[in-house]
Amino acid sequence: QRRVHGEERMLPELKMKPLLLILALVGLSIATSVDLQSDLGALLASKARASDAIDAVLGLLGDLKRSSLHEQQTLEQRNRTQEGEGTRTVAQYSDMLNKNEKQYQDAINHREYIEKEMQDTENHITWIETRLEEIQRKLDELAVQRCQANSLFVQALKEHSDALKSLKFVANELKRLQGSGELTEIKSLTQKFLRYENLFEKEVVTKFISLGKGEEGAASAAEGEKAEASKPAPSGAAGQILQMLSNLEQSLRSSMRSLEEHEIQAAYDYAEFKSQSEIENTTLREDMERKHKYLAKLEVDIEVAREYEDKCRGIRAVSYTH
């Protein structure tokens, strides 16, 4: 009975074990299923997180790439800007150098121009002074020449006047002697004429002397023959002498008119030259006064130009050192 009772107690226990096993298996299965679902969920969640992480990383990488590209573009733009600024700076510096160099060369040219103007002005002043001295020297020479020429003119005029008086005297005496028949004094009359032989041509003087000698010989021969014939001595030579005296008188008067005309023309020319010289002297002195004023201005300008040139030289030197 105890056995039966024990077997009966064991039978339910034996029946419970498979049930428990089944229950354990089911529980295990359920547990396993739960675990698998949990793991799958976790896996899916992890995958999602990984995907999100990847997306995040990709997004970050994209952002980094875009940021890098933007930064690169910014740097390139900045580089281009800096290059442009550098090019402009170099151009401005070169322009400044060229400007300073040109300014310096202009200063040199201006200073040289003023120096040349000063030299030309001084040369012109020297020429004016020389010209004034030359005009004055010429006026002095002409004044002396005019004084001498006037003295010679007066002397020549007096000689001509005296010669005319002598010619008239000889002609009158010859007429008187011819009328009285006394022709022996012709030789003495010709001597009076010969005092002024320098006023006549040599041939005229020679002819006059020969005529005088011929008339004197004719008169002597007539006196040697006693005046039975009571004829006057031939008067052919006397007539020729009188005609010659008349011609000589006209020649003297013509010579006097020529002397007077020449003297008047010479005096007029001297007065004209003197008047023109005075006008030129006035013009030259006015020009000299202007040149002296201009030279005084240039002397101030050259000092300013030299100072400006020194300043431009200093600016140019500083430009090259920088």
Can you describe this structure?
The protein is mainly alpha-helical. Helices cover about 90% and strands about 0% of the residues. Helix 1 (about 1-180) runs antiparallel to helix 2 and helix 3 packs antiparallel against helix 4.
Structural class by sheet pairing and helices: mainly alpha
**Helix share, percent:** over 70%
Distance between the termini: 129 Å
Please report which band the strand proportion falls in: under 5%, 5-15%, 15-25%, 25-35%, 35-45% or over 45%.
under 5%
Strand segment tally: 0
> In this structure, how is the largest beta sheet organized?
none
| Count of helix runs | 4
Give the radius of gyration.
74 Å
Furnish the topology, listing elements before pairings.
Elements: H1 2-180, H2 186-194, H3 202-224, H4 236-321
Helix pairs in contact: 1-2, 1-4, 2-3, 3-4
